[in-house]
Structure formats: C-alpha cells, structure tokens
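Exercise 7b. Backbone tokens:
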C-alpha cells in the first residue's frame, strides 16, 4: 500500500468510519465535530450521551469492522451553504463550521452508504472495501474542548491507531509500550526527581535528586561556554510593561505572559494596605486618581502611575538588551556574549501542559551575543560547534531546520532578506546545500532562526537548540557600538540556546536513558553498602574518599540486610554499588556491582576506583567502566 495514500486518504477515511460506528452504537443524538488524521492514526470529537471508556473500545472496533465489510460506496458532493445547513440540521458543530466558511468557498460533503454524511474536503476512498486490509485499534479517549476553548463544549475525543498492515501496527504498539516504560513522569516519580502540585500548575518542584542532576547540566553548560568566551548575567524576573512594549513582546506575546498586579500602587490612608487581592483587582479603573476608595475595612488612595502593569518575563531577550545598553561599546569588544539561566514564565492552556515537556516555569541555557555583521558567520559556526559537543555528550543526533519570516514579522523586509541569506550561507557551508530543511514562515517575529531537532532512543524528534538572528531588537532598543572609523553603528544580536528549556531537555534525557543516566549526570553516582555494622567505619572512609574527589555518594548505614540495601540503590539506578565486608576493609579495596551488568568487580583498590570515577566525571562518558584494568 502506498504510504502517502495511506496517510492522506485511508486514515482520514477511517475517521469517518469511526464517526459512523459511534452514531450507530449511541444513536442519532450524537453530535460529531471534526475527525482529522494525525501522526499515528486519526481521532474524532463527539458529544455522546454516555461516557466512553476502555470497556467500550472493543464494541466500537467491531462496529467499524462491520461497517467496512458492507463495502459501501463513498460519494463526494458539492453543495450550497443552505443545502449544507439542511443536511446537518441539528448538528451544531457542523452548522458552526459551515457558517464560518468564507463566502464563495466550495462546500463538499462525503456520503458513506446511504445513512452517513460528513462535511469534508476529502479526499477519501471510493469504497469501504479498500479499508479491509488496514490495521487499526482504538488508542484512548480523552476530554477536548470545542475549538480548544475551555469556555466551549467539553467533548470526548476518541483516538485511533491506524497502519497499512497488522505487522506495522504491531511494531507501533511495541514502540508505544516502550515509550510508556520510558515515560519521564513515571520515572521521575520513581527516582524522586521532581513533582507537580495543583498549587502551581505546570511548575515543577525539583526534589533533591532531580535538582542535583539539574545542577550538573548547568555546570556542564557553564564550563563549556566559559571555554568559548561567554560571560553570565542575571536580570529581574518581572519588568514594567514599558520594556515589553519596546521589545515587541507586548504585541506578539501578551497572551502567554503572566501579569503581576501592582499592589504597591495602593497608598495607605488607614492602618494597613488591604490584604484581599481580589478587592484590588476588582476596583474600577475609571475611579479618579487620588480619590479614596473603600476596600473591606480600609480606605486607600488609588495611584494609577504606581500600579503600572508589570509582567513576569517569558524570555530573557529584553533584559540582555538593557544590560548591553548600559554603556558605550567599541567594535574591539565585540562579540559580547551574555549567557543567562534565569527563571522564565509562559502562560499555557491547561490542556497543553505535559509533564516537563510543556511547563509554565522553566530555565533555558540562553545567550544573547552582540556582533558586527562581519562576525555573524564565524560566531554561528562556533555556536554550532558547541551544539555538536553537547549533543554528542548525550549520544543524540540532530538535524538543522531554517525557519523564515512569519506573517507577523517586525521590521523591514530587506533586513529580513539579508538575515535569511546569511543563515542559508552558514547552513550550506556546514551541512551542504540541501542538507537541511526550510520551514517557511516559522521564524520568530524579530528574525529568522535555525532550529536543531534532536532524535532520541525511540526515533522521536524534539526541537531543543535554536539560533536566531535578530536585526530588530537592537533597532528597537537603540543599541550601538563605535566602529573603527568613529561612527556609531548598530550591532546584530544572535539569540541562542542549545538545551533549550532545561525542563524539557531533562524530560527528553530521562526517557532517552530510561532513568539510567551516564555516570557524570546521575544524581548519586555510587551507593555504598556495608555488609554489617562493624563495616560502617570502613564505609565512612570510602565515602569520604569519594566525596573528596567530587563523587556523589550515598551510604546505607541502617541495619537492613545487604540484599535490601543493594535493592534500594538498584531501584534508584545508581551506576555503581560498592559492597564492603571483612576482606575489603582489611585490604582497602571495594567490590563493585556495575549497573546493567551481572558482573561484580572484586578486589578493586579504593584508589583505583576513585580514579575511575574522576575519569568519568572529567570525560563525561556515556558508558560505565566495567573493568578495573
């Protein structure tokens, strides 16, 4: 079966079969909305007079098979707007879609047999018998708001896996099972790395083990960037809206920003500022400035200027611009590289948040580099070399993607053309002409960008790294440098991240390594097991030697038996577990259990083992050393 035909026609046709099956099972009162194909199948959104659960999947699949076996003819019809409304009378979602179609739009419907009709552009199969060899299975059912608006109808979305053959579906289901076993939310909980709480939706709590790993990622990034001439800054986490107006974020990003009420703008006239924040928010802004207003038991004076809007920063860019602008710069200082790891906040819809992959609070390995135009290509080449080293350290490959001018771009088209041409030259030189993809219209509003898509152990791609060329923000902020001829020129800014969101990157590597992290990254690298109480003294000596060498070690001094202690460290996936008894204490050696191996290294001198650990931390190796030679 032709893959493109399957993706473009068969999956979409199966969505219609799914809708028809649901209506035949649950009755004509079912409201059906949309049913597009997706990456591994399709889905359809319904209002159903019953709650669909896993126990219902088999009945729906059997009804789909029954419908397909009828070998019904599919027919396409062009209809007028009024005819379409009559055909879908009583179907409010279809009626709304019809009403939203622009004047002059060709409206098409598809009939499946004599009793089912759907509003659709197509294309579809000519007869249901074409679907008889297709393999499909209901994946899940979840809630979904109509048109993604939480104020609209809450619907049931039924997902369907669909593949050309049973073998391909079987392979996909195996991959899905593997993905479930690698789920970073599950592993993160098991390894005590992070947690979430409803009091801070989409904002992870980093637990001691997870925060240790987080710090190792930051340390690795900082050490590497220091070798490439980066300096680090930190800036305020909230700023007055004036800053966001200058940068353009107020116009382009306001719906994703957290606003901060200006409680400081209330000037006391009584004993204290009112504590009920809701009262402050509900005050009519039309109240005259300086007029006392009663809030609860207190009388306060409204000062409009003092409560000027503040917002938590969703990006570091404007702060870097302000840092650069503090003084006059010479061309001799450029490039100036401002690295920044500050906390960022971006407002997301509740349905979009997904563990660490989509959060509302995060950090990036951000950098804003100020260069002359003549330095652009050399600087970006150096950034790509940093990305090569970081991704190789984690054993992942990547591909580059050039994103060009979006519809809501800021600035002059000629400047955009110049920026895009520069990035194309860089990519052609690095990857060869055609060795990268072009993503038309997906650039940032202030400039084109190179996105780096990494591939994980399951073959999934994730956009992590980004290099963005910006001629706009330097103009908006009036940034300059003194050129060699004494004239004042405008620098170009390169926005850059390699990890991207550290939260998202950690989620990816949790799944990539299945929680069994490389030695240098593991929250705790060595677990020490004294067999009996009399071995605790030597265990303390081993622990101190490892800590002195910068190795993260945890020792179990409890009176649990040896097997229980070993099991605890294995569950935490510590790379090495040292078992210490009479012989080890007498000979100043360690017996080493290597994670993922049935081998035990016997009689390894403590000095040699410490050297092994130091070597792995220094070299950031992926594999554990399983030999003491």
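Sequence design result:
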């Amino acid at each position: 079966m032709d893959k493109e035909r399957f993706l473009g026609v068969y999956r979409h046709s199966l969505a219609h079969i799914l809708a028809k099956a649901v209506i035949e099972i649950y009755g004509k009162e079912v409201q059906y909305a949309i049913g597009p194909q997706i990456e591994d199948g399709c889905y359809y959104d319904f209002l159903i007079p019953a709650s669909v659960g896993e126990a219902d999947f088999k009945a729906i699949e059997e009804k789909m098979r029954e419908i397909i076996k009828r070998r019904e003819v599919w027919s396409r019809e062009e209809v007028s707007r009024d005819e379409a409304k009559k055909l879908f009378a009583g179907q409010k979602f279809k009626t709304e879609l019809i009403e939203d179609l622009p004047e002059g739009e060709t409206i098409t419907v598809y009939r499946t047999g004599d009793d089912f009709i759907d509003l659709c552009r197509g294309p579809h199969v000519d007869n249901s018998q074409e679907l008889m060899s297709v393999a499909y299975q209901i994946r899940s059912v979840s809630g979904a708001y109509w048109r993604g608006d939480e104020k609209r109808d809450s619907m049931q979305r039924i997902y369907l896996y669909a593949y050309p053959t049973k073998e391909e579906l079987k392979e996909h289901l195996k991959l899905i099972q593997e993905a479930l076993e690698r789920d970073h939310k599950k592993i993160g909980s098991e390894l005590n790395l992070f947690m979430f709480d409803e009091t801070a939706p989409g904002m992870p709590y980093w637990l001691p083990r997870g925060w240790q790993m987080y710090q190792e990622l930051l340390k690795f990034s900082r050490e590497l960037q220091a070798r490439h001439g980066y300096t680090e800054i930190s800036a305020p986490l909230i700023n007055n809206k004036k800053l966001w107006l200058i940068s353009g974020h107020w116009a382009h990003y306001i719906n994703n920003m957290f606003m901060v009420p200006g409680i400081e703008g209330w000037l006391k006239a009584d004993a204290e500022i009112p504590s009920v924040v809701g009262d402050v928010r509900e005050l009519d802004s039309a109240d005259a400035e300086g007029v006392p207003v009663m809030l609860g038991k207190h009388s306060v004076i409204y000062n409009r200027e003092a409560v000027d809007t503040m917002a938590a920063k969703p990006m570091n860019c404007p702060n870097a611009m302000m840092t650069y602008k503090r003084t006059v710069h010479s061309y001799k200082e450029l490039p100036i590289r401002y690295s920044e790891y500050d906390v960022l906040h971006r407002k997301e819809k509740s349905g979009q948040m997904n563990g660490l992959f989509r959060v509302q609070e995060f950090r990036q390995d951000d950098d804003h580099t100020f260069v002359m135009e003549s330095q652009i290509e050399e600087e970006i080449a150096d950034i790509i070399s940093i990305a090569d080293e970081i991704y190789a350290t984690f054993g992942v490959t990547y591909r580059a993607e050039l994103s060009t001018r979006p519809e809501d771009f800021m600035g002059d088209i000629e400047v955009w053309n110049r920026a895009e041409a520069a990035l194309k030259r860089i990519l052609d030189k690095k990857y060869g002409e055609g060795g990268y993809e072009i993503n038309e219209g997906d650039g940032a509003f202030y400039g084109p960008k190179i996105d780096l898509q990494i591939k994980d152990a399951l073959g999934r791609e994730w956009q992590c790294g980004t290099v963005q060329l910006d001629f706009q923000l330097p103009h908006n902020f009036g940034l300059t440098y003194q050129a060699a001829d004494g004239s004042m020129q405008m620098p170009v800014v390169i926005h850059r991240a390699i990890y991207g969101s550290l939260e998202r990157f950690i989620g990816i590597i949790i799944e990539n390594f299945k929680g069994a992290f490389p030695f240098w990254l593991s929250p705790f690298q060595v677990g020490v097991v004294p067999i009996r109480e009399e071995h605790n003294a030597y265990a303390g000596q081993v622990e101190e030697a490892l800590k002195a060498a910068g190795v993260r070690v945890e020792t179990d001094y409890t009176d649990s038996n040896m097997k229980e202690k070993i099991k605890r460290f294995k569950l935490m996936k510590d790379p090495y577990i040292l078992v210490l008894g009479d012989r080890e204490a007498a000979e100043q050696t360690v017996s080493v259990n290597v994670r993922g191996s049935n081998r035990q290294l016997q009689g390894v001198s403590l000095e040699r083992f410490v050297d092994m650990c130091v070597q792995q931390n220094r070299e950031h190796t992926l594999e554990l050393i399983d030999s003491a030679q």
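Instructor comment: Residues 266-306 form one domain. The longest strand covers residues 135-145.
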